[in-house]
Hints:
alpha+beta, two-stranded parallel sheet, 5 helices
Amino acid sequence: MEQGSALYTDALRAYSTFTNEHDLKHYAFKTGKQRSKGIYHIQNVNSYHSRLKSWIANFKGVATKYLNGYIALFNFLDSISFDSTTNGIKELAVQSLTHKEYEMIETLRLRKVEII
C-alpha cells in the first residue's frame, strides 16, 4: 500500500498497529454496530472472506507454500461464478479449453495474488 492510503477494517487492534507503523489512515467499523461510513463499507470483503474460508475448508486446510495457488484458483472460479453441479463442471471444462490466453505454469505460480 502506498503511504497515505486509507485502510477500512473491522475494529481488530492489529489493524490499528499496522496502520500506525505504515503511516496509513485507518477507519474502523465496530463489528455488529456499524456497517458503513458514507459510501464505504467492508461487507464485500466479509463476503469474499466467507466464500474463501468455506471453499478452503473443503481441502481440510492448505499448506502455506501453496496458498497463492489456491487463492488464484479460487479467484478464477469466483470470477466465473463457478458452481460444483454437473453443468458447472462442464462449463468450467469448456471455458478452460477455449481460453485464448496462454501462460506458463511458472508464471502463474509466482504471480502475486491481488484481491479486488
